[in-house]
Amino acid sequence: MNNIQSYIKENKTRFLNELIELLKIPSISADSAYRDDVLKTAEAIKVSLEKAGCDIVEICKTDGYPVVYGEKIIDKNLPTVLVYGHYDVQPPDPLDLWNSPPFEPVIKKTALHPEGAIYARGACDDKGQMYMHVKAMEFMTSTNQLPCNVKFMIEGEEEVGSANLATFVKNNQDKLKNDVILISDTGMIAQDIPSITTGLRGLSYVEVEVTGPNRDLHSGLYGGAVANPINVLTKMIASLHDENNHITIPGFYDKVEELSKEERAEMAKAPFNLDHYKKALDINDVYGETGYTTNERNAIRPTLDVNGIWGGYIGEGAKTVIASKAYAKISMRLVPHQDWEEITQLFKTHFESLAPKGVTVKVTPHHGGQGYVTPINSIGYQAASKAYQETFGKRPIPQRSGGSIPIVSLFEQELKSKIILMGFGLDSDAIHSPNEHFGVFNYLKGIETIPLFYKYFTELSN
Ligand code: BES
Ligand code: MN
Ligand code: MN
Q1: Where in 223-302 does DSSP place strands (E)?
Q2: Which pLDDT band holds residue 1 (cuts at 50, 70, 90)?
Q3: Kindly report the CA angle at 171 between 170 and 177, in degrees rounded to 5?
Q4: Which ligand is nearest to the CA of 186?
Q5: Do 248 and 242 meet the contact criterion of CB atoms below 8 Å apart?
Q6: Does residue 403's CB lie within 6 angstroms of at least one atom of ligand 1?
Q7: Residues 335, 188: contact at Cβ < 8 Å?
């Protein structure tokens, strides 16, 4: 493609400023106090898609936050790329751990980002990565180099489970018809090691509640004589892993895909430095399932983690009390073939069976989704690979990610096309954490690489 590098150079400041404006709107989908801001973000995305050259842009109502849809159809006989992204972000808390306010973006240089990184909630996940596609589109339309048809589907509920997007996709099969789905909402191995995400884990998210006595009790008068819900809950949770860090829920591993020796050997070729890994997290050792490497543990193996646990007295000083209730939020990351609804049911049955006499246990499923794997011999993968080779000067490494984008497997099922995950973030970009950031290099490299995907996908589709 002509002039992509010079186009980026000339427009770099504007590209950064536009993203900064978008990052200032706190589009927190989980917190209804930010409803107006989420809706305002949808409006801003709509305007940006119009400016980027889409012929039709609509804000499509759902039962939750709207989906922003845009398209430019240049020739019905050419292939169609459908871009998916999300404009909602995670809550920024804990606020006091941010070095600058989460919705007042600043650019700062770091060791990994010598060209600077934009610090803000959503910088990497996913406003920054989604906006690379809008700017890539602008480049292609304004220089008359759009080689195929494009559709955009940008949603506002990814961080809360995409419940309404599923309905939207099912009801709009024709509108969303495409030849490949392109997503930048994952990461790459390192600045000089491009990678394409070939797998995502599934997810089952549940909340548990253990109830003991009908009121909080004096821990001296009653302690030892009635079940303490917090003691019981922690014991139940502890029993969910055995001494090898295997999950103990009966049937949990039944459908887990075991990779062959060859596949594991192939995976092990991806660059990884355990010392750097430990150092980056300030831990003196890694931890996990016996028999698997760190990269296997967080990509091809299922896991169970407590995400939050509460109950009893947590205020200043001490209060001698046995709480009536204790709670926890638990996520299970799943691998392909494990069905999230089945796993949720297995968890519920098992967890309830663990309850000793003297307490009652309630398990409430939150949300979930299936895992995803995609082959590397598809036209989409090959096109992406060629695009990276051109902009990074090396072949990207296929890599399975431990994260989840639950809606991805539904896309494949409903829209019958392959999903290509071209992520440009780094694991160290602190998504969902305080001080989330996105490298200026990564942002611009994404804008440079995406148009080449369009070009090669169109060429290879012939
Ligand atoms: N973009 C992330 C998922 C991700 C990040 C995948 C990095 C691979 C690499 C997405 O926004 C996300 O946070 N997903 C959630 C699940 C969702 C249902 C809240 C997750 O993985 O926890
Ligand atoms: Mn995301
Ligand atoms: Mn996220």
Answers
A1: none
A2: confident
A3: 75
A4: 1
A5: yes
A6: yes
A7: no
